[in-house]
Design brief:
Length: 329
């Protein structure tokens, strides 16, 4: 399996820095309440107006900040820190918050962007800099949205796209633990209620434009909620035929037919996010579980299928390095 080395980290960071502030093309998530709302991306999003869309810009920031912490001697490290000093300021955060306060913005980026903003804040808190303090009010805004949303979400969102609730809660739980005990408890309660009794998952995936595995994202979340023994019991009931190579779909990397098609290019992200899930599941099961070796093999196969394609077309290039970092780290 490829290791996350400094040369690879520098490649990822340089790729993301090339579009982190690139304002166009940009896909707005905007409900126009009147003609006065027809403004360029920078006016609505003073920080997160690059990388094609808001959530990709958020997790692009997460990626470069994580890389500069892991590899502080990268050649681009001074550029990353300087950009953070210029962009992650209380004034610009206030502009992002103003967008959330607009009418018809309650569903903005729910839940994928919410979770990535919390992940970014958690990463910034590991740096000796004022960036996390500046972003804290925006993180609290999104935490409040999770508090309001989760109790009324009667049924889990099991799709393999941005709406997947298990992926979002995996990231949100990492933020909430140690910061918001009530949110952490709510996440645990809702997730166990939705997924605790799941058995014999069919894993009818991937869908044609999915970048997340509904089955593996659910399993990864459960690995964060249950102690090792309970997770092992749950997991072997959830996917009881893994040792026989079934469901085969989970072991088979997705084929990407056209990387210039933004939706089909999602499948490279699926391969990388599956690798992240497989590795996390293997770690939770431990080396004594025979499924762990299969999980590691599956992770290697999925990384090999899509890591060479992180760059090449902007439809994947504006976001895939983040998922490559998840898969490799």
């Amino acid at each position: 399996m490829t290791d996350l080395t400094q040369p690879l980290a520098e490649r990822f960071a340089a790729l993301t820095l090339s579009h982190l502030g690139r304002e166009y093309p940009f896909k707005m998530d905007l409900v126009l309440n009147g003609p006065e709302d027809a403004l360029p991306p920078r006016a609505h999003h003073p920080i997160f107006h690059g990388s094609f869309d808001w959530h990709s810009c958020v997790h692009g920031w997460w990626q470069v900040m994580r890389l500069v912490r892991l590899f502080p001697e990268m050649a681009c490290a001074p550029d990353i820190r300087a950009r953070a000093d210029a962009m992650l300021t209380p004034e610009k955060v206030a502009g992002e918050r103003a967008y959330l306060a607009r009418p018809m913005s309650a569903g903005f980026e729910r839940p994928y962007g919410w979770a990535w903003l919390l992940a970014l804040h958690a990463e910034l808190a590991r740096h000796d800099a004022p960036w996390a303090d500046a972003l804290m009010p925006l993180a609290q805004d999104f935490a409040a949205r999770f508090h309001a949303f989760l109790p009324k979400l009667t049924y889990p969102l099991r799709v393999g796209t941005h709406y997947n609730i298990a992926f979002a809660l995996t990231l949100a739980l990492q933020w909430a633990d140690g910061r918001d005990a009530a949110l952490a408890a709510l996440i645990r309660d809702r997730a166990l209620g939705w997924f605790g009794a799941d058995r014999a998952c069919q894993a009818w995936e991937p869908g044609g434009d999915e970048f997340l595995s509904p089955a593996l994202c659910e399993a990864l979340l459960m690995s964060r909620l249950l102690d090792p023994a309970d997770f092992s019991t749950w997991y072997h009931a959830f996917l009881p035929d893994l040792l026989a190579g079934a469901p085969a779909t989970l072991f088979t990397p997705a084929t990407v037919s056209d990387r210039s098609d933004g939706k089909i290019a999602h499948l490279d992200g699926l391969n990388l996010s599956r690798a992240w899930c497989w590795r996390g599941i293997a770690a939770a099961l431990g080396p004594g579980d025979r499924v762990s070796a299969l999980a590691q093999d599956a992770a290697r196969a999925h990384i090999g299928a899509s890591l060479p394609h992180v760059a090449g077309d902007y439809m994947g290039e504006h976001w895939l390095a983040t998922f490559a970092l998840l898969a490799l780290e």
